[in-house]
């Protein structure tokens, strides 16, 4: 996900070294950069989060900027357009501000811990606020040609969650098809608490599962298209909790 960007200054220093230093003929290379910046812009046919739609089943524009240090510390912001809700709690945009640390904790095992602040900058309801915090942690590893990840997210009791808390646990698998620029993925998650799909579709107060399987075709190193089948527990409400296929076009840097 993180792709190093060489700045203009680095290019200038490199060019100056080629002119001024004969030692450059000795196959010397620049040391790795301490900070990398990455990001992407994408269009999706539906903004689905943990199985539920936050764009009313319609097209959404999304993007991310991430800054990472060689120590493993990172921070960034992710954003998406939304469907305007009737109470204007969320408005028409979501910005997720996050920070954390990622690194190896054992041979072949990578940890990722941090916290996300979900914020809705143009929600104007003076009585109900949508903003809340959610810490997260995950472990990922390689199993031959397959990558595997398990994680947990927990949001404590907050006003935006109706004074309740929320617990989310998930597992993911990913792999690539040899000789073909296609990646495959699968996801299974379970939500218990304020954001349970059963609760949000007025089915019950029980927790509920969401799942997805998908494929991404990498046209170039920076451009890809994808399709993902998404399903979720709870009542099937068109444009919110019905099973669907989500298409995407993504440009990364």
UniProtKB/TrEMBL annotation:
One Pfam family matching this protein: Gcw_chp
Entry annotated with the keyword Signal: yes
Residues in the signal sequence: 1-25
Keywords tagged on the record: Signal
InterPro entries for the chain: CHP02001
Top-level taxonomic group: Bacteria
Protein name as catalogued: TorF family putative porin
Organism annotation: Novosphingobium aquiterrae
